Amino acid sequence: MESLIRVLALVAFLFPVLVDCAVxxxxxxxxxxxxxxxxxxxxxxxxxxxxxGQTLYAREDDTVLVKVVNHVKYNxxxxxxxxxxxxxxxxxxxAYITQCPIPTGQSYVYNFTIxxxxxxxxxxxxxxxxxxxxxxxxxxxxxxxxxYPFPKPDKEEVVVLAEWWKSDTEAVINEAIKSGLAPxxxxxxxxxxxxxxxSSCPSQGGFTLQVENGKTYLLRLINAxxxxxxxxxxxxxxxxxxxxxxxxxxxxxxxxxVIAPGQTTNVLVSADQNSGRYLVAASPFMDAxxxxxxxxxxxxxxxxxxxANAPTTRTSPPAKNATAVANNFxxxxxxxxxxxxxxxxxxxxxxxxxxxVGLGINPCPTCKAGNGSRVVASINNVTFVMPTTALLQxxxxxxSGVFTxxxxxxxxxxxNYTGTPPSNLQTTNGTKVFRLAYNSTxxxxxxxxxxxxxxxxxxxxxxxxxxxxxxxxGNYNPKTDPKKFNLVDPVERNTIGVPTGGWVAIRFRADxxxxxxxx
Length: 519
Prior knowledge:
By secondary structure, this protein is mostly beta strands. It has four helices and 30 strands. It has helices at 2-20, 169-179, 323-331, 391-396; strands spanning 23-37, 40-47, 56-59, 63-70, 78-81, 107-113, 119-125, 135-141, 155-164, 188-191, 208-211, 216-223, 229-234, 239-244, 247-254, 257-259, 264-270, 277-285, 297-303, 312-313, 351-363, 373-379, 382-384, 428-430, 440-448, 457-460, 466-473, 492-493, 495-498, 502-510.
């Protein structure tokens, strides 16, 4: 009898662990799928034939195993955008950074544990331009018995925003590389895979969000677009922002969300209006002289009991260059900073880095359309050269000649970053990394430049969350601007938009060893 009691006690002790820490298995078949949008069809690369791809569900502390089988002609790798990958850097996904890509006909199992995270993230291809159609949501639920720090919604809905090209996106980027010029902009934006009716294709339907009067819905918004920041709004309804990039924020109400590529935003919307149909709109935000896709994607919020042919209450999206609307949203974001979810902002800094982010022009004898030149991206005047051996592999096995450790912590040349550019616009090509000591603290200022044109730049830090402690227009002033930093409750993110003609300052602790990247 005593031994039976001991066994029962042991089972009772272990049972919560077995329940709370599950192993989730997924199989992702990468296949071609003929798809029609904008009244024209083309084959696209998908996961399991879906666009957008299926949602990956897990709970905090779960282990996730995803077997990816490549059935297409392209090499493939998948990135779990925002998952910290603590001690599982091999599973992060960027091709030739943390892994070799998966060849045609081969498979690879991504194995990672979601530690200390809950909320909305995304997965996407991380090679070539395949992520234009190879992407989907990650929903990490809190541990069982742990409530949201906001009123529990009646229902949840994933809303993925993206872009659509009529052409093959690999042909689009290959032509840009060949010509030396910027790639063509997309032909439409999409909401859960659909542009909605447009003038060139009025017959195509859009996504419909079904709601019931009196209920509250949690919308998990994801910007899976390649290039463009987007505004999101619903006619006649306020949105209560409760989370960004899988971190809780102090709730606030808004009628417009701005969301950069790679970012996520969770909002509560109450079905508190008269029954009917209400327009949902996703439109571009670009406050620089840069070409963007001007087409607004539309969907419908549809109250139950409303006839399908009932008139739709419409809304006007913000102007494309509505900087004030974007700034109002961004400046309203604050970490929840509660006892349960504190904002652990580094107060003392070990590494003080300053990175200029922008463009350059390098020689390209074969680029006829570019008159013998190619437009390139650079950070601190360094244009990254993709290696053929994965950086993490080279680091772990001590393979020499793959990368160098001389990435500059400051710009090699000082100039008026947001003013008149220097006469020499050529960059340095290289596969360079910057080494950080484990557990050191970092302040990184990201400064936009006016070379060719100022532009907002989404930057994602793999393997880390960071705190956005400050931002501003013009050139960063290291003497005066830090005095205005928010070191108490700044928003915590994994992806940030560097403002057009401005700068943003982030802080983080380098507590995740390995070769991790910033894109």
